Amino acid sequence: MSGPTRPVRFLLGDEPRELRDIDPNTTVLNYLRLRERRVGTKEGCGEGDCGACTVAIGGMDHGRLTYRAVNACIQFVGALDGKQLLTVEDLAEPDGALHPCQQAMVDAHGSQCGFCTPGFVMSLFALYQSQDRIDRNRIDDALAGNLCRCTGYGPIVAAAQNMRAFGAIDGFTRRRGEIMAKLRRLGEGGMASLEGEGRRFFAPQSSAQLADLLLQYPEATILGGGTDVGLWVTKQLRRLETIIHVGDASDLKEISVGERWIEIGAAASYTDALATIEAHHPDIAAMMRRLGSEQIRNAGTIGGNIANGSPIADSPPPLIALGSRLVLRRGDRYRELALEDYFQEYGRQDRQPGEFVAAIRVPVANPGLTLRCYKISKRFDQDISAVLGAFALTLDGKRVREIRICYGGMAGTPKRAETAEAVLAGQNWNREGVEAACAALERDYQPITDMRASATYRLKVARNLLRKFFIETTEPEARTRILEERRSAHADA
Q1: Do 321 and 458 have their domain in common?
Q2: What is the pLDDT of residues 252-273, one digit of tens each?
Q3: How far apart are the C-alpha atoms of 172 and 389, rounded to whole Å?
Q4: Rounded to whole angstroms, how far apart are CA atoms 250 and 191?
Q5: Which of 45, 238, 403, 422 is placed for a possible disulfide with 50 were both Cys, Cβ 3.0 to 4.6 Å?
């Protein structure tokens, strides 16, 4: 093992906590309710969908203290190391005065049965702390991961709009320097680890430590944001013997932009990467806002979405269409491969024991290339895709110089439509060629029928998405994205 180890340390509110002998599979939600007896944080779905368990996590980000909302039900307690954990019980002032987001909820009558209210309050708290412009679109993003069956959301939205009127500076802002000093001290003394019930947890502080640990424990579960791995424990009732958390490996969270590539560290969250991705590939950023709630995006990582190898993961299709590459590491050895080559077949990826995804290299924006991606799911926000189609087109006049088409949900892996691409390559970009490519899709894919969609539906949708891409590249005045127009209207209001 590389370097000294120490217990997991974090702040619960303002109070330090130190954990040594707890089962690493313990979720933050169960820790709060069963050990700390903080029952304001509720269990609803147990899978990061309903938001009743929302808490705020404070941490250092490039020298600043930031607070982000996360789902406590699918976060493991070891991932709290070096952070401040806040629940609804922490928000009021010592004299009992409510936090502005709480007072706004009271005055707007934003609670009825009350079960979901603590989660909404914590999402509002994180929004309050963000100092973002609080327009309707920002409120919708912040609250998309919180479900309420009583109020109809109108009073809760009103609370979000008005909460800063109850105080522009709260106690957490006034104590920011003190909290930052406490957090810095938590990380002293080496790598965090704990062991309970015969199971182990490690939080390496660098990719070098991670590489050493994985040589020692090649069968360990690599934990990123926990947005998928957490469900292995809460829904499949699995017990993970060794967990290695990558969220403290600072070099794996770096994002850089060079002449050819955007390099995204495997531990960078969707929230961390969103602004950079949006500057180069706005369609991917629009999709990322839908793949999960703000709580999920704050925790989940692009690297984890890829490494897990799911055929319905949302990140791979547009990244494959762009020609992205993957950097893997085992020990001191690195290798690089095309992202599409990482996925071999359902449940199998080109990753050896002890090897891990270190970074994703995404091509920078190319003025001559048009990229679009379309997510089809039963719910607009935070739902698993039935089909996701991604299209990257370069034209030479009216002729197709290159086109790359990739779908998720159509095969056992994210997969390019190579037959359809060959039909279009070198031909004029016109409706006749697109229809021929649509017909060729049945030679590229034999989709399955499952609970999300039938095979017939998937193939029909895949064809229609290619037609939609054609319309958007040839008829820019066509109205193809009604919900995005609604968001624009909100922003202008």
Answers
A1: yes
A2: 999 999 999 999 999 999 999 9
A3: 43
A4: 12
A5: 45
pTM of the model: 0.94
Q: Is 64 exposed, middle or buried (0-12, 13-18, 19+ CB in 10 A)?
A: exposed
Please list the alpha-helical segments (H only) found in 223-378.
229-234, 270-280, 282-291, 294-299, 302-307, 316-322, 339-342
Rounded Cα distance between 14 and 300, Å, is 26
| Distance, CA of 362 to CA of 257 (rounded, Å) | 9
Residue 275, classified by CB atoms within 10 Å of its CB into exposed (0-12), middle (13-18) or buried (19+), is: exposed
442: domain CATH number is: 3.30.390.50
pLDDT tens column, 197-245: 999 999 999 999 999 999 999 999 999 999 999 999 999 999 999 999 9
- What 3-state class would DSSP assign to 475? coil
Residues 155 and 105: their CA atoms lie apart, in Å, by 8
Supply the range of the domain harboring residue 103.
Answer: 1-187
Strand stretches in 130-251, DSSP E: 191-196, 199-203, 221-223, 242-245
Which element (helix H / strand E) includes 344? strand 343-345
Say how far apart CA 244 and CA 356 lie, in whole Å. Answer: 11
In angstroms, the first-to-last Cα distance of the chain is 57
Q: CATH number for the domain including 131?
A: 3.10.20.30
Residue 162 sits in the same domain as residue 258: no
* Residue 291 CB partners (closer than 8 Å, separation 6+): 270, 297, 314, 315, 375, 382, 385
CA 32 to chain centre: 23
238 part of a folded domain? no
The verdict on 332 and 448 lying in the same domain is: yes
Which of residues 187, 219, 237 is at a domain's end? 187
- Residue at 90 is within a domain: yes
CB atoms closer than 10 angstroms to residue 168: 11
- Residue 246 domain-assigned? no
